[in-house]
Structures are given as C-alpha cells and as structure tokens.
Amino acid sequence: MMDGNPNPLFSVLTGLVLFSGISFIFFGVSCLFAPYMVMEFERYGLKKFRIPNGFLQIFGGIGLLVGLYHTPLLLAASSGLALLMAAGFGVRLRIKDGFIKSFPAFFYFLLNLVIFVWALSSNQ
Q: 70-83, pLDDT tens digit by residue?
C-alpha cells in the first residue's frame, strides 16, 4: 500500500486510514477504561461485550495502521471495523437513540467500508 505512490487519491486513502486507525485505538482504550463506557454498555444491554469490543477496536485500529504496509491486513481490519460499526449503529437504533446519537457509528461504518472498497480496488 505505501509504495511512494504520488497519486493524490492515494494520499486521501492514507489520510482516511490514519484517521480511522488512530480513532479506533482511542475508542478501544476508552471502551476498556472509561467509566462512561461502562455505563453506556449497560444501557445498550451489552455489558459483557464491552471488553471484547474494546480489544477489537484497538486491534482493528492497529490493523488499519499496519495495513498501510500490508494490504490483506488493511482489508481484514477495515471490513471487521465496518461490521463492528454496522452492529453498533443497529444497537443504537434498537435502543431508540435516534439517528443523531447513532451517527458516529454510521459514519465510521461508512468510512471503513470506503477504506475496504478503495483498498480492494487498488489491490487489483
């Protein structure tokens, strides 16, 4: 992926990957340690999934960053995070948080879907 490509679209993809990867590392750490997230997962009815979710977010974020150098890892991490965020969006709607409160999950679902499709098409 990172082969010194001067294409401006490549730079955009790199920026999106960096943004998402760093975001998910922070989200994952927050999920593991922030008292607010403990309360949120209880509110979601998913208390037992908070710690696995935090680790998935951290590993997914790291996978995106390392995936800049190894496209199969980028594809795995971006698709996994897209699925995780699609599920998160669904949970938010199920508990009737509404679209505005649910939007961050939807945004990160779309972002990682774009990364996945872009990386897949550039890997051909």
A: 999 999 999 999 99
